[in-house]
Design brief:
By secondary structure, the chain is of the alpha/beta class. The chain has twelve helices and 17 strands. The model has no long low-confidence stretch (mean pLDDT 91).
Length: 419
């Protein structure tokens, strides 16, 4: 490669502070190890989820997924102060010593933000053709989700879509992992047959199936304009079967920034503001009795909305189920807010563990076939008012990350980058 690689680097204590760092000394790249791929990120999405994951990097150990390269110049070579984060998208194989994947193939997965290729040692496993797994010792402490990569079956087609800035590819890239998060919530955590539900963490059984039973339930969705929430609401309307546990009402509890878009999607029976002063009176006006199923799902509501609503509702509605799917993006730590929410009965969502348990119960091939069918249907319908927008270059990526840090990107926009 002749271009000088560039990478995004964050301040670990203030993840709103970023730098675009050039790495001329990274070239030439070293020889590739056996059974390995050298992958260059070519398409990625930046979202609130990207920024939120930066806040959890220490917990998720994601600073170590792609460590600072040895060629990183000072002061950014100090790994105690600086680190790299990752996003979801497509990478192209620049070099391969692994027989199952050829040069110029494309893989979808968790990729570093930058143009410097990264090397992974991989293997295939029985289960799903086209899926490969990183086996590097330094990555084995990560959740399984981050070590799985999916080889695109039609590299020429994908290359053409990237070159033409396909709207369909932009929408898919913006939503793919968000859609799958919603899929495991709808099909497994909030299973239409509650007796078969999987705990939100995939392992923790403290959250009883009664708390995820949507039979005639009122479902309150905080941050209803987030991509996972939009996909989840779409599934509640389109992928639940008659005779199953179906909700009576889906309510979008939105901030003033997103309320108009949320209403326009048509996915919610009601849309109210997070600033609603008396959630209990609101539910009473809808005729929600105290003994009815009530589910509060926080996808990252602004201004501590999850804690506010749970605090008001829990004393009155003993059957309240409170799930914490996302976190609000703020410059300060969210740890205290998370602890408060857990104290109110909030149960954190662990996508990777829930996915692993779903795969165990259904079989790997069956699980991913179901995800792909759902994604295909979702893409055909899309979301009214939502725009997946192409941008290009690392400078644009940096601007996009900054925009999400400052909440200057609307919920109706998905940012996808060719780098």
């Amino acid at each position: 490669m002749s271009e000088v690689p560039q990478i995004q680097i964050l301040d670990k204590k203030n993840y709103f502070t970023q730098a675009l760092v050039s790495l001329p000394d990274a070239l030439p790249l070293p020889p590739l190890k056996a059974s390995s791929l050298r992958i260059r990120t070519v398409v990625l999405t930046i979202s609130l989820n990207t920024v939120a994951n930066a806040t959890k990097s220490a917990v998720l150990s994601s600073w170590t997924v792609h460590p600072l390269p040895s060629s990183t110049p000072a002061p950014y070579n100090d790994a105690s102060k600086y680190g790299r984060i990752n996003s979801w998208g497509y990478g192209q194989v620049a070099e391969s010593t692994f027989p199952g994947v050829s040069k110029d193939a494309y893989v979808y997965g968790y990729l570093p933000i930058g143009t410097l290729p990264f090397d992974i040692t991989v293997e295939t496993r029985p289960g799903v053709p086209g899926h490969i797994f990183a086996t590097d010792t330094a990555r084995q402490h990560l959740l399984a989700t981050y070590n799985r990569y999916m080889v695109h079956p039609e590299p020429k087609l994908l290359a053409d879509e990237i070159a033409s800035r396909s709207p369909a590819l932009a929408f898919e890239t913006a939503f793919r992992i968000m859609h799958e998060s919603a899929f495991v919530l709808n099909a497994w955590a909030y299973c239409p047959r509650p007796e078969h539900s999987v705990p939100l963490s995939g392992l923790d059984t403290s959250f009883s199936t009664k708390a995820t039973d949507l039979t005639d339930a009122v479902v309150l969705v905080l941050a209803p304009g987030s991509k996972v929430a939009l996909a989840f609401a779409w599934m509640l309307r389109n992928e639940r079967h008659q005779g199953g546990a179906n909700p009576r009402k889906i309510v979008g509890v939105a901030s003033e920034h997103s309320v108009d878009f949320v209403k326009a999607t048509g996915l919610y029976n009601e849309t109210v503001l997070t600033s609603e002063e008396n959630p209990v009176e609101l539910l009473k006006s809808w005729g929600v009795a105290k003994d009815k199923n009530l589910v509060l799902i926080d996808f990252g509501g602004r201004g501590g909305a999850g804690v506010k609503w749970a605090s008001a509702l829990k004393p009155v509605y003993p059957k309240l189920g409170f799930a914490m799917i996302g976190v609000e993006v703020t410059e300060n730590s969210t740890a205290d807010a998370v602890k408060t929410a857990i104290g109110l009965g909030g149960v954190p969502f662990n996508f990777s563990q829930l996915r692993d348990e779903a795969i165990k119960r259904t079989g790997e091939a069956e699980y991913f076939e179901a995800v792909d069918r759902s994604l295909k249907d979702f893409m055909q319908n899309q979301i009214p008012g939502f725009e997946a927008r192409w941008e290009e270059g690392m400078e644009a990526v940096m601007e996009g990350y900054k925009a999400f840090c400052t909440s200057s990107v609307g919920s109706n926009v998905g940012l996808v980058y060719k780098v």
